[in-house]
Amino acid sequence: MLLIVGLGNPGSAYEKTRHNVGFMVIDALLQRHQCDAVKKAVFEGDLYKFSSHFLLKPLTFMNLSGRSIGNVKRFYKIDEVIVIHDDLDLPFGTLRFKRGGGHGGHNGLKSTDTAISPDYVRVRMGIGHPGERNRVADYVLSAFTPQEAECLPEWIERAADAVEALTRMGMDEVASKYTVKKTPLQ
């Protein structure tokens, strides 16, 4: 049993922002599969049963994502967690995978690390960097450029394919098949 989490912020104001690529991948998976909603206030998120796995969109806002993840993980006694998130350190459209590691200043990962430990699989979706540290907060909450938006559907679908593959095979095998290092915009 896996807990597959997409990080993002709830609400229509954030729906199409860079910080919400994790939510976008969960939405793509929800469109592909018959999922049953699981409602419990303690989960603080939208939780769905997918095959023998769970899909979660924490509704705590990014900085408190770990609270929702930890609540679901403990309630169902889930050992393995996959977190899909935006990554400023990777160019837009890249897709990488790793287990554990630091949070790199990402508040959603920092919260998750605190709640469940840093030992989980990360699906890292590169969103690029604005170039200046003081512009990061506005950048992650901004919409994609028209060129990026054009590439977005294919990228989201590839990430969803990779997450599905992670339910059947090991991370190294998935990484060798689904990693994207160079994108059409580079």
TrEMBL record:
Annotated localization: Cytoplasm
EC number from the UniProt entry: 3.1.1.29
Annotated site residue numbers, Discriminates between blocked and unblocked aminoacyl-tRNA: 9
Residues the record lists as binding tRNA: 14, 61, 63, 107
Cytoplasm among keywords: yes
PROSITE patterns cross-referenced by the UniProt entry: PEPT_TRNA_HYDROL_1 (PS01195), PEPT_TRNA_HYDROL_2 (PS01196)
Gene3D superfamilies to which the protein is assigned, alphabetical: Peptidyl-tRNA hydrolase
Residues making up the signal peptide according to the UniProt record: none
Swiss-Prot/TrEMBL site (Stabilizes the basic form of H active site to accept a proton) positions: 86
Catalytic activity: an N-acyl-L-alpha-aminoacyl-tRNA + H2O = an N-acyl-L-amino acid + a tRNA + H(+)
Family: Belongs to the PTH family.
Name this protein carries in UniProt: Peptidyl-tRNA hydrolase
Origin species: Sulfurimonas diazotrophicus
Gene expressing this chain: pth
